[in-house]
Amino acid sequence: AGAMSTTTKGTAGYDRRRELQAFDDTKAGVKGLVDASVTTIPPIFHHPPDSLATSSTATIPVIDLSGRRSEVVGEVRAATETVGFFQVVNHGVPADLLAEMLASVRRFHESPAEAKTPHYTRDLARKVRFNSNFDLFQSPAANWRDTLFCQALPDPPEPEELPAAVRGVLLEYGDAVRQLAVRVLELVSEAMGLAPDRLEKMGCADGLSVVSNYYPPCPQPHLTLGTSRHSDPAFLTVLLQDDMAGLQVLVDDDGEKRAVWADVPPVPGALVINVGDLLQLVSNGRLKSVEHRVVANRSRDRARISVAAFFNADLRQTTAVYGPIEEQVTSSAPPLYRSITVEEFLSHYDGKGLDGRPALDHFLLP
Ligand code: OGA
Ligand code: NI
């Protein structure tokens, strides 16, 4: 007793841990604060100011999947080896399914407390989890965002485990977006000079988490973020965003050797695809899992909605190990990373929270 830890107690008796717990106990998320008409955001959401510039020139490529295959493969190679992000159009997921998915996420997050709090949990054993900030108690600063998480594959939840608002659409959306992910993994395999089915056969799309994000309007958006900078803990991510901007990717400003934030502008009907940490690992660093973030919602009255589909290995296959693919390792490109299980990777990722440090660095070979 008497010892004041700097992580739990800051200045003037401010008890961060207690503030986090009180916020979590409301089970109402950031939306609850907005509904209570807060005009100043609680200090747990304050992020240190960011010194990086936002660039207006850097662009994220848009790839038309109905184009000539050899050309599409070339475009996928160029994007995955540099910015790590691209958008796809003519991707085969029906437009009305995209619209219905976004609408159902809005429906859930905007339903009354009685419909939401029963789903509020941090219990990783539950396949369906509503909460605000999966890393609330680990990260240095909280994000202005609420999330509905669903472990959709390999073993989907029973329909009644899903909130009624998303029950009719979420698993159907997951299936449709998985077909697209398999197609993209084929293109990526080819781009790496591998047989088209190689990545899928490795199990890169056997697991799927559907993460539905709700970014309420923020009264002090310059003090916080919607999502802290991070790279994705997956092989591949397929992101559906509504028509409100906010997603930014860290890119090298052309010419100058400095990193800047580039907007990923909403393109009607498109889906955003990005390389995850595990694809960077198995490609031995050739494909880039690039850091990105979401700025806090600057709108006065409209929430931003996004749905991230993270494709991963089947976590029940606890002995499956992933390391740099043999053919990607040469005498001039020695292995960069050690082989790990996906479970090992995810527990490292979740254990540290979004702290601004790349999770993959932990597995670099000396
Ligand atoms: C994520 C993510 C971006 C967004 O969930 O990992 O980067 O636009 N989301 O919500
Ligand atoms: Ni992400």
UniProtKB/TrEMBL annotation:
<dbReference type="InterPro" id="IPR027443">
    <property type="entry name" value="IPNS-like_sf"/>
</dbReference>
<dbReference type="InterPro" id="IPR005123">
    <property type="entry name" value="Oxoglu/Fe-dep_dioxygenase_dom"/>
</dbReference>
<keyword id="KW-0479">Metal-binding</keyword>
<dbReference type="GO" id="GO:0051213">
    <property type="term" value="F:dioxygenase activity"/>
</dbReference>
<dbReference type="Pfam" id="PF14226">
    <property type="entry name" value="DIOX_N"/>
</dbReference>
<keyword id="KW-0408">Iron</keyword>
<dbReference type="InterPro" id="IPR026992">
    <property type="entry name" value="DIOX_N"/>
</dbReference>
<comment type="similarity">
    <text>Belongs to the iron/ascorbate-dependent oxidoreductase family.</text>
</comment>
<dbReference type="GO" id="GO:0046872">
    <property type="term" value="F:metal ion binding"/>
</dbReference>
<keyword id="KW-0560">Oxidoreductase</keyword>
<dbReference type="InterPro" id="IPR044861">
    <property type="entry name" value="IPNS-like_FE2OG_OXY"/>
</dbReference>
<feature type="domain" description="Fe2OG dioxygenase">
    <location>
        <begin position="204"/>
        <end position="313"/>
    </location>
</feature>
<dbReference type="Pfam" id="PF03171">
    <property type="entry name" value="2OG-FeII_Oxy"/>
</dbReference>
<protein>
    <recommendedName>
        <fullName>Fe2OG dioxygenase domain-containing protein</fullName>
    </recommendedName>
</protein>
